[in-house]
Amino acid sequence: MDKQTALQLFERCWPCERVVATTGQLAGAGLDSRTIKAGLQFGLLYRLRRGVYLPMNQWRDRKPWDKDKLVLSGHILATNGQYVYSHVSAARLHKLQVWNSSRLIHVSAPYRGAPSRTSQDVAMHFATVEAQDIVQRFIPGTGLAKFTALPRTVLQCAMTTTFEQAAVIGDSALHAGLDLVVLENLLPLFHGCRGIKRARRVVNALNALSESAGETRTRLMIAELPIEQPELQVTIETSSGRYRVDFAWRAFRLILEFDGDTKYFDQAQTTEQALLEERERENALIEEGWRIIRVKWKHLNSPELLKARIMKAYLAAQQAAP
Question: Rounded to two decimals, what is the model's pTM?
Answer without folding.
Answer: 0.90
